[in-house]
Amino acid sequence: MTAAFIGLGSNLGDSCAIVAQAAAALDALPHSRVRQASSLYLTPPWGVQQQPPFINAVVEIDTLLQPGELLQQLLALERAAGRVRDGTRWGPRALDLDILLYGQDIVCAPGLSVPHPHLAQRAFVLLPLAEIAPALTVPGLGRVDALLAQLDAGDCRRLDAPAPLQRAGG
């Protein structure tokens, strides 16, 4: 089993419910199980600013799926949630799932880069990641808590809502 960290985000529809359902769906992936999930965070959009704020979380899974197989499973979950990939980057979406880390592996393949290439620049990823794995080392970048300390996360807010798996009933 390899520990993989998945970023979850949504800013269309009932985003809290969508993220909770996606966390539960991660637990149902073949040869995988969720180990832990962060709280939900309300965060401003990144990239395209003229869109609703996001709900973000991070889930740690143990998986036997290889990175490419895991990516295909995540893309299928996005499609099932209504995500249409039309080439638009950083726009509104019902569900966004990203492989942030896959063990300590560095993956450079068509359509997949791990660690996620923007991980160290995004407070909306590092806040929930630091909640569940602050001492985790990101290959080539350093510890999660140290990366977060370099960013301004003042416009991100942890919600009082239950963590995604609690809300999804897991």
TrEMBL record:
It is an enzyme of class 2 (transferase). InterPro entries: Hppk (IPR000550), Hppk_sf (IPR035907). Pathway: Cofactor biosynthesis; tetrahydrofolate biosynthesis; 2-amino-4-hydroxy-6-hydroxymethyl-7,8-dihydropteridine diphosphate from 7,8-dihydroneopterin triphosphate: step 4/4. The keyword Nucleotide-binding applies. One of its GO terms (molecular function) is 2-amino-4-hydroxy-6-hydroxymethyldihydropteridine diphosphokinase activity. Residues 89-100 form the 7,8-dihydro-6-hydroxymethylpterin-pyrophosphokinase domain. The keyword ATP-binding applies. Its EC number is 2.7.6.3. Gene3D superfamilies: 7,8-Dihydro-6-hydroxymethylpterin-pyrophosphokinase HPPK. Pfam families: HPPK (PF01288). It comes from the Bacteria. Belongs to the HPPK family. This is 2-amino-4-hydroxy-6-hydroxymethyldihydropteridine pyrophosphokinase.
